[in-house]
Amino acid sequence: MWSSILSFVSLLLVVQAATDNVKPWFCHKLDCPKFTVLQNTTDYQLRHYIPSKWVATNMTVTTYSHGQLFQKLFQYISGNNVPGQKVEMTAPVVTTVIPDTDGTTMYIMHFMIPYAVQANTPVPNDSDVYLVDVPAMDVYVKSFGGFARDNTYVTKLQELKTSLDTSATNLYDSSQFFTLGYDSPFAFINRHNEVWLQAVKA
Ligand SMILES: *[C@@H]1O[C@H](CO)[C@@H](O)[C@H](O)[C@H]1NC(C)=O
Ligand SMILES: *[C@@H]1O[C@H](CO)[C@@H](O)[C@H](O)[C@H]1NC(C)=O
Ligand SMILES: *[C@@H]1O[C@H](CO)[C@@H](O)[C@H](O)[C@H]1NC(C)=O
């Protein structure tokens, strides 16, 4: 009996590893965070992400322009770090959006650290740029193509909330959301974007 339990567990581990290692098409050639799909519907997915390492920077503003945050992270990967080392671009660019009651919003932009340098990650020179270890998390995901504008993300977020709100068991953290872009502005086809809400346990 124990041996059949063990072989069942190792089968599960194999399945888990296999799913984790399948890179979705929308990452193209870039390293991207690893996940398994827990629930798939025509409107959204529930994904489980394993822990990952990121470089981040933030700003708290009333009027957002993503260029300034992007530039700081781009400088970091271009060599503005202690060893002066270039770091490969990864996907996606993840921005956490946290509205405050005073009318300001905090935006935290993140680039994932490539797997090859996660164990020995260059330290940022810019004091506004920092490394973050993101724990495992479950997120509700709404995907869409094309060029995403700020108002596209807001529309998709609303659609995602509407889909989730049809079931009382789809619990999420409504104090923040995440916008994700997987492509450079110079990619004109097969673009992929997502909006996320973090799932919370009942
Ligand atoms: C999820 O569902 C969509 C729509 O039904 C389908 O196109 C897609 O292939 C499914 N993805 C997975 C990972 O099962
Ligand atoms: C980053 O800091 C290191 C050591 O503190 C320094 O040698 C290097 O010149 C700095 N790089 C840039 C691009 O400022
Ligand atoms: C925002 O950035 C500052 C450094 O500029 C950092 O100390 C702080 O922890 C960041 N806040 C969040 C929520 O990431």
UniProtKB/TrEMBL annotation:
It is found in: Cytoplasm. The keyword Iron does not apply. Gene3D superfamilies: Regulatory factor, effector binding domain. Keywords: Cytoplasm, Signal. Its main location: cytoplasm. Residues 1-17 form the signal peptide. SUPFAM superfamilies: Probable bacterial effector-binding domain (SSF55136). One of its GO terms (cellular component) is cytoplasm. The keyword Signal applies. InterPro entries: Reg_factor_effector_dom_sf, SOUL_heme-bd. One of its GO terms (molecular function) is heme binding. Monomer. May bind free porphyrinogens that may be present in the cell and thus facilitate removal of these potentially toxic compound. Binds with a high affinity to one molecule of heme or porphyrins. It binds metalloporphyrins, free porphyrins and N-methylprotoporphyrin with similar affinities. Belongs to the HEBP family. This is Heme-binding protein 1.
